[in-house]
Amino acid sequence: MIEPSKHQPDPRTQHDAIDVSDFVYAATGARIRRLTMPDGTHWFPAVDVCRQLGHTNSRQALADHVPDGHREILETVTGAYGLSIPAGREWRRDLNVISLQGLILLVNACTKPACAPFKQWAVEVIETVQREGSYTLEEAEVQPTEPGAPIAYAMPEQVAEAIVRLEAHNLQVDEELANAQRESLAVQREMLEMQRATLTAQQAIAQAMDRIANRLDVLALDRPTPTADFSDHPTTEAVLADWRQRLSVTADVWAVAVVIAPVLVEEGELRQPLDSIAARTGLSVHRVNECLRLLRKHACIHPRGGAEDGTPVYVLKRS
User: Fold this and answer.
1) How far apart are CA 143 and CA 240, in angstroms?
2) Could you give the dihedral angle defined by the CA atoms of residues 41, 43, 49 and 50, in that order, rounded to the nearest 10 degrees?
């Protein structure tokens, strides 16, 4: 039989790299990444282990519980075997990794109740080794039948019970999450129905307001327009009083009326640009134009051509 070279990994002991650690799963119920070297040694991402064991500061946890010899950088670990950095699953060259012994040290320092059964089992292992000189797992009652399959061992009772409890807890968490998701979907559907009902109500209100506005316009056109008996030289006050009788004057219309009425009385016509009126009233040009249109509609003013620069010219509408 040819023995393997000292410089080459022994194919009898070489393992495939896997991403699930039964050790940490048995201790906390978590699945973490694990990298297996050609010599069979295991390395674990420190950030994964610390997160699952409840260590909020991974750097401090490593400094407090893991000696330097049991923690490394991924690039250093893989470089010793001439291996490249594993692709995917957020493996990085500068990733902190810990050995199996470092992992055990972190588990022993964990305060999570889920780690208690494993700690108790570790204590029994140490006690058995001190008392009997060794510790051996019992072989499982049912062994694999495949040729060359390794011997199956029975899982320690404490660890098996921990896994059962963790599985029951995980199922409960999954059920609670599913219930929460169903409740969230139900709430979202109710909110959507409320939004649709609100939109329908708003549309109905808008349509009703449009009908009312149209009816008011019709009534205003059908109503006889009162006229005032202007003398040859009407006053600003008389003009404004007449306009108040002709239409329901809003604040915007009144602001425009107060500006243009004196000009119409004193100069006989209005030639001011819309932006000039807007500047004096504080209204927009569009709103000023709407106010003038309303005054024309109710026979308060009358258009008379335009100035050379295109500005519309208005005069008083006389009966």
Assistant:
1) 108
2) 120
Structure tokens at 243: 């306009």
Domains of the chain: which residue ranges? 22-134+153-165, 236-316
**Per-residue model confidence as pLDDT tens digits over 211-250:** 777 776 666 555 554 444 455 678 888 888 888 888 877 8
Phi and psi angles of residue 250, each rounded to the nearest 5 degrees, phi first: -90, 175
**What letter does residue 139 receive in the DSSP assignment?**
B
Which residue, 250, 239, 241, is CA-closest to 314? 239
Whole-angstrom CA distances from 133 to 5, 23, 101, 210, 231 are 33, 23, 20, 96, 129
- Say how far apart CA 198 and CA 195 lie, in whole Å: 5
Residue 146 to residues 14, 70, 139, 141, 152, Cα–Cα distance (Å): 20, 36, 16, 16, 12
Q: Which two tokens stand for residue 297?
A: 């509609």
Residue 6 has a pLDDT of 36
Q: Other CB atoms closer than 10 Å to residue 163's CB: what's the count?
A: 18
Tell me how far apart the alpha carbons of residues 269 and 314 are, in angstroms, rounded to a whole number: 6
pLDDT tens digits along 108-132: 888 877 777 777 777 787 788 888 8
Residue percentage of the chain with pLDDT more than 90: 2
E-state strands within the chain: 35-36, 42-45, 71-73, 96-99, 301-306, 312-316
Cβ neighbours, 10 Å, residue 265:
18
pLDDT of residue 4: 34
The beta strands (E) that lie in 230-298 are given as: none
pLDDT, tens only, 245-290: 888 778 888 889 988 989 888 888 888 888 888 898 888 989 989 9
Annotation: CATH topology of 236-316? Arc Repressor Mutant, subunit A (1.10.10)
